């Protein structure tokens, strides 16, 4: 398993060790001991999520003001552009974003600690995204930052207006969002 730093400290790309043979492939998609001992990331995951979306769906930018969640994101079908935004007011990288292509083919995972807003754009015809979270869903505590907030200026690889949920259509700009101290 390989840890790749990103432009924001604490956010990492992870490349698993993939074993291939004449039957196909095998890899450990998560191993708590290796995560801790080899990557130096301590995380206790309590929930697994799985979503499927069609091309050009954009889900995000989401976070929970109650029970903030760390997320380990991977793609099992298709390709997404996965984005994390630092919304920790005291962080030197507050308001900065990173974005990486995660796909069933590259098998890359993105580790996003609590304190970030998360979202993704589906690039392939369909994408299935699986992610582990370090705290439970808090329905009353989920918040949305506007995906195209001009202050964030996220460079989404987008060619036409995305398909959004009603919630995401009405996201808050970061400057007026409830954020983490
Ligand atoms: C997140 C979540 C949702 N739900 C229910 C609530 C709704 O009835 C339905 C769809 O929820 P939502 O539209 O919030 O799903 P997404 O737009 O994919 O939200 C997620 O998208 C971004 C990318 C994230 O990182 C978050 O995990 C999460 O906010 O699933 C649950 O029952 N449990 C959950 O943990």
From TrEMBL:
Q: What reaction is this protein's catalytic activity?
A: dTDP-4-dehydro-6-deoxy-alpha-D-glucose = dTDP-4-dehydro-beta-L-rhamnose
Record pathway? Carbohydrate biosynthesis; dTDP-L-rhamnose biosynthesis
UniProt KW keywords:
Isomerase
| UniProt-recorded Gene Ontology molecular function terms | dTDP-4-dehydrorhamnose 3,5-epimerase activity
Q: Does the keyword Membrane apply?
A: no
Q: Does the keyword ATP-binding apply?
A: no
Q: Which InterPro entries match?
A: RmlC-like, RmlC-like_jellyroll, RmlC_Cupin_sf
> What EC number(s) would the UniProt record show?
5.1.3.13
Which family does the entry's similarity section mention? Answer: Belongs to the dTDP-4-dehydrorhamnose 3,5-epimerase family.
Recorded hits in NCBIfam families, A to Z, give: rmlC (TIGR01221)
Q: What does this protein do?
A: Catalyzes the epimerization of the C3' and C5'positions of dTDP-6-deoxy-D-xylo-4-hexulose, forming dTDP-6-deoxy-L-lyxo-4-hexulose.
Subunit notes for this chain? Homodimer.
UniProt-recorded name of the protein: dTDP-4-dehydrorhamnose 3,5-epimerase
């Amino acid at each position: 398993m390989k840890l790749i730093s990103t432009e924001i400290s604490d956010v990492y790309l992870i490349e698993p060790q993939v074993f291939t043979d004449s039957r196909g492939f095998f890899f450990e998609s998560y191993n708590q001991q290796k995560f801790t001992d080899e990557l130096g990331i301590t995380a206790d995951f309590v929930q697994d999520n799985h979503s499927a979306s069609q091309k050009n769906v954009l889900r995000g930018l989401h976070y929970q003001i109650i029970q903030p969640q760390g997320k380990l994101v991977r793609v099992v079908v298709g390709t997404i552009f996965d984005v994390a935004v630092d919304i920790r007011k005291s962080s030197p990288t507050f308001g900065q974003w990173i974005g990486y292509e995660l796909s069933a083919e590259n098998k890359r995972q993105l580790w996003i600690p609590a304190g970030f807003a998360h979202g993704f754009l589906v690039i392939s015809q369909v994408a299935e995204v699986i992610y582990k979270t370090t705290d439970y869903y808090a329905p009353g505590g989920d918040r949305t930052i506007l995906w195209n907030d001009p202050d964030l200026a996220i460079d989404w690889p987008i060619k036409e207006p995305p398909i959004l949920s009603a919630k995401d259509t009405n996201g808050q700009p970061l400057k007026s969002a409830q954020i983490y101290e």
